[in-house]
Amino acid sequence: MSKRKPTDTEASETNIRSDKISFQLEFLAKLGTQQQFRQLFEHLPGIYFFVKDAQSRMICASGPIVRRLGFSREEEIIGTTDFDFFPPQVADNFIRDDRQVMESGRPLIGRVEVWYNEQRILDWFVTNKMPLHDGSGRAIGLMGTIQSYDDKQSSLAPFFEITRVVEYIRAHHQRQITVEQLAELIQLSPRQLRRKFSDVFGMSVQEFLMKTRIQAASDALVNSGSSISEIALRFGFCDQSAFTQQFRKHMGLTPLKYRHKYARLSSAAAE
């Protein structure tokens, strides 16, 4: 079967697109290697920008990230990794996400996780990561943004009801909490709450609650001498078996293996 020839209109549209792409590439080529677009992030309140290479080593970052990590100049963080700044169990999560983004080629959008706030205390942040490719399409790293939960909250004024739910979860995650209780707190139906929460955070209420509990429990495993069964009950799990199942699902390790791995790494880092 012979291939259909494009109409004059289609050929004209193709030529226009080609001319526009050439115009775009010609302009971008003039920028050289100065990464001038990223300077825009220095003026976006509460949004921090970073770039890592294929080994998750820091290549560049916004001023707030540099200062948050304890430095005054960007060149001081070049070549560092998350293991240089965060507890091993937290850094491991970051690196695992980096690998997922680079290997899959798919962005990671709206990931809620812990990072350092201005007081260098681990707090909730919202992270976006996108893969970076060279001219041949090979993954060479990633770029991303970090936004604190508080700044995210300010930008979500229309969803004030949802922020009340999040604050309640953060303050009471050790208790048994149901969607029905949270919905009653802000005078919505459970269905309305589920929909609004998903619109804002890209995850269900139950998933956010579970992430909060697992993060708190992981800190307790590394930094306390409490037994695993005590930690399970403390953070709202009905028993150690349920805790172990959920912990392995989210962290990739059982609580016992997690404790052995990261308590050892934390002790070595302290020495």
Tell me what the structure shows:
The protein has 271 residues and is α+β, with helices and mostly antiparallel strands. It folds into 2 domains: 36-152, PAS domain (Beta-Lactamase, 2-Layer Sandwich), CATH 3.30.450.20; 156-270, Arc Repressor Mutant, subunit A, CATH 1.10.10. 51% of the residues lie in helices and 15% in strands. The chain has 11 helices and 5 strands; from the N terminus they run αββααβββαααααααα. Strands 2-1-5-4-3 form a 5-stranded antiparallel sheet. Helix 9 crosses helix 10 (240-251). The longest helix is centred in the first third of the chain and has 23 residues, at 8-30. The relative contact order is 0.08. The mean pLDDT is 83.
Query: Whole-Å distance between the termini?
Result: 74 Å
Report helical residue fraction: 40-55%
Shape: globular
Strand order of the largest sheet: 2-1-5-4-3
Order of SSEs, N→C? HEEHHEEEHHHHHHHH
Q: What does the average pLDDT come to?
A: 83
**Radius of gyration from the CA trace?**
23 Å
| Main sheet specs | 5 strands, antiparallel
Strand residue content: 15-25%
CATH architecture of the largest domain: 2-Layer Sandwich
* Unreliable parts: none
How many β-strand stretches?
A: 5
The CATH class assignment of the largest domain is Alpha Beta
CATH topology of the largest domain, by name, is Beta-Lactamase
The CATH superfamily title of the largest domain:
PAS domain
